[in-house]
Design a protein that fits this description.
The chain is α/β, with parallel strands linked by helices. The protein is built from seven helices and 15 strands. It has helices at residues 47-58, 79-86, 96-106, 180-190, 219-225, 235-246, 255-262, and strands spanning 3-10, 15-22, 27-31, 34-38, 43-45, 62-67, 76-77, 89-93, 121-123, 128-131, 134-140, 149-153, 156-158, 198-200, 216-218. A hairpin with a 4-residue loop joins strand 1 and strand 2 (15-22). Helix 4 (180-190) crosses helix 6 (235-246).
C-alpha cells in the first residue's frame, strides 16, 4: 500500500504521535507530535520526538507537515522541534482562533494574536494537503474543542480525541467551547465512512480488563461496540451521558502548561530579560 503509518506511543501522557508517508515519493507528515515535559521539575526533553525524526531519516523521508488535530490539554506539542528540524509547516483547524480568544486572557498571553498566525497554515472542512502522490483531506470534527479536525488519507483517518477505543468511549466536552451535541454529530460523520475505514486514535488509556495499549480500530468496530456511541445511541442519550460523566472528571494533569503552549503552536511564552521562560498557573480560573 502506498500509505505507510508508524505509531509512536508516549506512555507518560498516553498519547500517540504518528509518522505517515507516501511510500512511492517518501513525502511524509507528523500528526500530534509530543514534547517530553516533567511538570515537577519544569524540564522539557526531545527524546520522544527525536526517535520519530530518527525513524524518518532512516527511511529517507522528507517531512512536509506537522499536523495538530486540536490544541491538546494533556501534552505539549513538539511541532516547533519538527518544523525546525525538517522545514515542515505547522497546521491546525481554523477555529483555533476561538480557543486562542478564550485562553489568551486566562494566561495573560499579551504576545499572542488570536488569529491563528502562530501556526503556518489553518485548515477547514474539505481542504486538502498534498502528501506525495497522496492527499490529506481535512474533516472538521468539533465537539471536544471547537478547533478539532481529523485527517483522512485514503482508508485511514486520524481522529484526534473524538473517539477512543470502543471499550473506552469518547472524548470529554467540558473544556471551553466544548459541545457534546456537536461531538455526537462529528462522530456520526466519521461513522458514516465505509465500514472498513481505519481509525487511528490520539490516546489510549487501557480500559478496565485490557492489558495492552491499542490505538487502531475501524468504523465497523466503533459502530458495533463503542460503549458511548454505538449504533442505536441517540444524540439526546449521548449528550446526557457525556455531560453527566464530564462532571466527574478531574482536569488533565498537564492542562495548564499544555494549553498555554499549544495555543502558541507549541512555542513557549517569550523569555524574560535574563532568558528564563516562565509558564503561568492561573489560580481558580478553570
Amino acid at each position: 500500500m502506498p500509505l505507510q503509518i508508524s505509531a509512536h506511543f508516549h506512555e507518560p501522557t498516553y498519547t500517540v504521535a504518528y509518522l505517515v508517508w507516501d511510500d512511492a515519493t517518501k513525502h511524509a507528515a507528523v500528526i500530534d507530535p509530543v514534547l517530553d515535559f516533567e511538570a515537577r521539575s519544569g524540564r522539557t526533553g526531545t527524546q520522544s520526538i527525536n526517535a520519530l525524526l530518527a525513524e524518518a531519516r532512516g527511511r529517507g523521508l522528507k517531512i512536509y507537515w506537522s499536523l495538530e488535530t486540536h490544541a491538546h490539554a494533556d501534552h505539549l506539542s513538539a511541532a516547533p522541534v519538527v518544523c525546525k528540524a525538517t522545514g515542515a509547516r505547522s497546521v491546525i483547524g481554523a477555529d483555533i482562533t476561538q480557543v486562542q480568544a478564550v485562553f489568551k486572557p486566562i494566561f495573560e498571553a499579551s504576545d499572542l494574536t488570536p488569529d491563528g498566525s502562530a501556526f503556518d497554515q489553518l485548515v477547514r472542512e474539505g481542504d486538502r494537503l498534498p502528501l506525495g502522490d497522496l492527499s490529506i483531506e481535512v474533516m472538521a470534527t468539533p465537539g471536544h474543542t471547537p478547533a478539532c479536525v481529523s485527517y483522512r488519507i485514503g482508508d485511514a483517518v486520524f481522529v484526534g480525541d473524538t473517539m477512543f477505543m470502543p471499550d473506552y468511549g469518547t472524548a470529554r466536552c467540558d473544556f471551553p467551547g466544548g459541545d457534546a451535541a456537536m461531538l455526537y454529530r462529528s462522530i456520526r460523520k466519521l461513522l458514516s465512512l465505509p465500514p472498513q475505514t481505519r481509525l487511528f486514535l490520539c490516546h489510549d488509556y487501557k480500559a478496565p480488563g485490557r492489558e495492552a495499549y491499542v490505538w487502531e480500530t475501524t468504523v465497523a468496530e466503533q459502530k458495533a461496540s463503542n460503549v458511548h456511541v454505538h449504533d442505536g445511541i441517540s444524540e439526546a442519550a449521548f449528550v446526557a451521558m457525556r455531560q453527566a460523566r464530564d462532571q466527574t472528571l478531574d482536569m488533565p494533569a498537564l492542562i495548564l502548561p499544555s494549553v498555554q503552549v499549544n495555543i502558541r503552536a507549541g512555542h513557549f511564552p517569550p523569555a524574560s530579560a535574563d532568558g528564563t521562560v516562565f509558564l503561568k498557573l492561573p489560580v481558580d480560573k478553570l
